[in-house]
Amino acid sequence: VQLQAFGGGLVQTGGSLRLSCAASGRIFSRNAMGWYRQAPGNQRELVATITAGGSTGYADSVKGRFTISRDNAKNTVYLQMNSLKAEDTAVYYCNVNPPVLAYWGKGTLVTVSS
Fold first, then answer.
1. Geometric angle at alpha carbon 7, from 89 and 88, rounded to 5°
2. Cα–Cα distance between 10 and 2 in angstroms, integer?
3. pLDDT tens, residue order, the chain (114 aa)
4. Of 4, 48, 113, 114, which one is least surrounded by beta carbons within 10 A?
5. Pair 48, 32: CB distance under 8 Å
Protein backbone atom coordinates (compact mmCIF):
# COMPACT_ATOMS: atom_id res chain seq x y z
CA VAL A 1 0.00 0.00 0.00
CA GLN A 2 1.62 3.26 -1.11
CA LEU A 3 0.72 6.57 0.46
CA GLN A 4 0.17 9.25 -2.15
CA ALA A 5 0.81 12.90 -1.45
CA PHE A 6 -1.07 15.62 -3.28
CA GLY A 7 -1.05 19.38 -3.49
CA GLY A 8 2.40 20.29 -4.70
CA GLY A 9 3.08 22.88 -7.34
CA LEU A 10 4.98 25.99 -8.27
CA VAL A 11 4.80 28.90 -5.85
CA GLN A 12 6.71 32.10 -5.36
CA THR A 13 8.89 32.80 -2.37
CA GLY A 14 6.70 33.73 0.56
CA GLY A 15 3.72 31.85 -0.79
CA SER A 16 1.75 28.97 0.69
CA LEU A 17 0.73 25.46 -0.26
CA ARG A 18 -1.27 22.77 1.48
CA LEU A 19 -0.36 19.15 0.98
CA SER A 20 -2.61 16.23 1.77
CA CYS A 21 -2.20 12.49 2.05
CA ALA A 22 -4.90 9.90 2.64
CA ALA A 23 -4.25 6.48 4.10
CA SER A 24 -6.29 3.45 4.97
CA GLY A 25 -7.75 3.38 8.43
CA ARG A 26 -5.56 0.44 9.32
CA ILE A 27 -2.45 2.48 8.60
CA PHE A 28 -3.66 5.81 9.82
CA SER A 29 -5.47 5.19 13.06
CA ARG A 30 -2.67 3.79 15.21
CA ASN A 31 0.42 5.37 13.73
CA ALA A 32 2.26 8.60 13.95
CA MET A 33 2.34 10.15 10.51
CA GLY A 34 5.13 12.13 8.96
CA TRP A 35 5.84 14.44 6.09
CA TYR A 36 9.22 13.95 4.50
CA ARG A 37 11.02 15.72 1.71
CA GLN A 38 13.94 15.10 -0.59
CA ALA A 39 15.70 17.84 -2.47
CA PRO A 40 17.98 17.04 -5.41
CA GLY A 41 21.28 15.68 -4.15
CA ASN A 42 20.04 15.42 -0.58
CA GLN A 43 18.84 12.60 1.58
CA ARG A 44 15.19 12.29 2.43
CA GLU A 45 14.43 14.07 5.67
CA LEU A 46 11.55 14.20 8.11
CA VAL A 47 10.10 17.70 8.27
CA ALA A 48 6.99 17.25 10.39
CA THR A 49 5.32 14.53 12.38
CA ILE A 50 2.08 14.07 14.26
CA THR A 51 1.20 11.29 16.67
CA ALA A 52 -2.10 9.47 16.75
CA GLY A 53 -3.00 11.70 19.68
CA GLY A 54 -2.15 14.89 17.84
CA SER A 55 1.22 15.84 19.27
CA THR A 56 3.42 17.46 16.66
CA GLY A 57 7.09 17.91 15.95
CA TYR A 58 9.00 19.84 13.32
CA ALA A 59 12.44 20.09 11.82
CA ASP A 60 14.14 23.31 12.83
CA SER A 61 14.20 24.44 9.20
CA VAL A 62 10.40 24.57 8.99
CA LYS A 63 9.39 25.36 12.55
CA GLY A 64 7.03 28.32 12.69
CA ARG A 65 6.24 28.08 8.98
CA PHE A 66 4.79 24.59 8.48
CA THR A 67 1.86 23.05 10.31
CA ILE A 68 1.00 19.38 10.28
CA SER A 69 -2.50 18.23 11.12
CA ARG A 70 -4.60 15.13 10.78
CA ASP A 71 -8.28 14.43 10.24
CA ASN A 72 -8.93 11.06 11.83
CA ALA A 73 -12.42 10.84 10.35
CA LYS A 74 -10.96 11.13 6.85
CA ASN A 75 -7.73 9.24 7.55
CA THR A 76 -5.90 12.18 6.07
CA VAL A 77 -2.82 14.10 7.10
CA TYR A 78 -2.10 17.62 5.94
CA LEU A 79 0.91 19.89 5.73
CA GLN A 80 0.21 23.59 5.60
CA MET A 81 3.31 25.36 4.32
CA ASN A 82 3.57 29.10 4.68
CA SER A 83 6.35 31.61 4.03
CA LEU A 84 7.91 29.22 1.57
CA LYS A 85 11.55 29.61 0.71
CA ALA A 86 13.62 28.45 -2.24
CA GLU A 87 15.27 25.87 0.02
CA ASP A 88 11.87 24.24 0.59
CA THR A 89 11.95 23.07 -3.02
CA ALA A 90 11.78 19.27 -2.91
CA VAL A 91 9.61 16.26 -3.51
CA TYR A 92 7.37 15.82 -0.47
CA TYR A 93 6.21 12.43 0.75
CA CYS A 94 4.04 11.15 3.52
CA ASN A 95 4.60 7.97 5.46
CA VAL A 96 4.17 6.68 8.93
CA ASN A 97 6.82 7.63 11.44
CA PRO A 98 9.13 5.79 11.55
CA PRO A 99 8.67 5.15 7.85
CA VAL A 100 7.78 1.82 6.27
CA LEU A 101 9.53 1.09 3.00
CA ALA A 102 6.45 -0.33 1.32
CA TYR A 103 4.43 2.81 2.01
CA TRP A 104 6.58 5.25 0.03
CA GLY A 105 4.61 6.72 -2.85
CA LYS A 106 5.75 8.98 -5.67
CA GLY A 107 5.55 12.14 -3.65
CA THR A 108 4.48 15.58 -4.81
CA LEU A 109 6.87 18.18 -6.15
CA VAL A 110 7.00 21.58 -4.49
CA THR A 111 8.96 24.21 -6.37
CA VAL A 112 9.53 27.61 -4.78
CA SER A 113 10.73 30.27 -7.17
CA SER A 114 12.27 33.60 -6.28
1. 15
2. 24
3. 889 999 999 999 999 999 999 988 888 888 999 999 999 999 999 999 999 999 999 999 999 999 999 998 999 999 999 999 999 999 999 999 999 999 999 999 999 998
4. 114
5. no
